[in-house]
Design goal:
There is one protein chain. The chain is α/β, with parallel strands linked by helices and about 350 residues long. It contains 14 helices and eleven strands. It has three domains: about 180 residues, Rossmann fold (3-Layer(aba) Sandwich); about 80 residues, no CATH class; about 60 residues, no CATH class. Helix 3 packs across helix 5 and helix 5 packs antiparallel against helix 8. The N terminus is likely disordered.
């Protein structure tokens, strides 16, 4: 806030949207000394051969990956394929098994990526955070990634989901994170020595018959079972969104969306890194909430994609698009980056 002439003036905080391309470009290719099999994938590469070792942990995902490979050869995107599979899952229990197994697969995949590829020096997320902290220290970050690479770079202790919005840099994980879980409702049929994954593979319809409510708490939990002080055991399952087109809900807590809406109402600038504006739910939310003029910087490896993003957003909000930058690595060291974050 600014105290000039005795007037309290609240400075608008930047809103930053991080898509899969941001984590993919987490570190400049020449600066990493780790093998590329730990590198975060783009959405259409979630089932790459380099992840075969993890895929084999989940037999149902092996079958699913066959459909992914076939669809890819036909030029069909992952979200389009998963939308079709979801439509079939009500009639085909094996497809429902595959979608549930996919959540467990994504949980393990991004746990391993965060553990094995994260916390590298000279990463782009750290420099982005340096820029935020050099210029007021506050921002609202919409993070579509399941990994915790950005969160690691903040240095924040994130022991519960409330911690994601308790700091000057608010983090809205609209699709969840690999260590977000919910308690499986009515899990009394699982034996005390059983596990959530095995139960759901044998009873995939359980999640349809016992859906989670928005008010159900989200836990930061790596395992699938926890015993409380009374000896009762609770079973957890991954709380992350699978990649489907036209998602009309977010999986983050409702109070996180309140924080996001308030940030969108007040901001005067938006930075987009590696997000294609394909999530119509967020695009619509931006159109509903952002009534003021905003400046938008797009970081995208494709000029065609940058123009498509601009077309989608200019149709719903009053925005100017002064610059676009090809890569995250190019952006964080540029004059464009410094000018974006500079406060008056």
């Amino acid at each position: 806030m600014d105290f000039k002439m005795g007037v309290i003036k609240y400075m608008p905080k930047p809103v930053i949207i991080l898509g899969a391309g941001a984590s993919y470009d987490y570190i400049h290719r020449g600066d990493s000394n780790l093998p590329l099999n730990h590198e975060p994938p783009l959405a259409n590469n979630l089932f790459d051969k380099r992840f075969e070792g993890i895929i084999k942990h989940f037999p149902q995902v092996m079958n699913l990956s066959a459909s992914v490979a076939s669809a890819s050869r036909q030029g069909k995107g992952l979200e389009e394929l998963f939308t079709e599979i979801q439509a079939k899952s009500s009639q085909n229990p094996e497809r429902l098994q595959q979608l549930i197994a996919c959540q467990f697969y994504l949980q393990k995949l991004f746990r391993d990526i965060t553990s094995n590829y994260g916390s590298q020096s000279q990463n782009n997320y750290s420099e982005l955070i340096n820029q935020i902290r050099d210029n007021g220290g506050q921002a609202c970050v919409v993070n579509f990634n399941y990994d915790l690479l950005f969160e690691q770079a903040t240095g924040y202790k994130l022991e519960n989901v409330g911690d994601f919005v308790a700091h000057p840099i608010k983090i809205i994980k609209v699709h969840g994170a690999y260590n977000w879980t919910k308690v499986l409702r009515n899990a009394f049929r699982i034996p005390s020595d059983g596990d959530t994954y095995g139960f759901l593979m044998n009873n995939p319809e359980h999640l349809l018959k016992n859906p989670s409510e928005d008010t159900d708490p989200i836990y930061i939990q790596d395992g699938y079972g926890m015993t409380d002080g009374s000896g009762d055991k609770y079973f957890f399952y991954p709380w992350i969104a699978i990649p489907i087109a036209d998602k009309n809900t977010f999986v983050c807590p409702p109070d996180h969306l309140v924080v996001l809406k308030e940030a969108l109402r007040q901001t005067d600038r938006i930075l987009i890194v590696g997000w294609k504006a394909a999530d119509q739910h967020l695009v619509k939310l931006m159109g509903d909430v952002v009534q003021q003029a905003v400046k938008i910087i797009i970081v995208s490896g494709s000029g065609k994609t940058a123009r498509e993003i601009q077309a989608k957003l200019s149709g719903v909000i009053n925005a100017t698009f002064p610059n676009s930058v090809a890569t995250f690595s190019d952006f964080v060291g540029s004059q464009i980056c410094q000018e974006f974050f500079q406060t008056e």
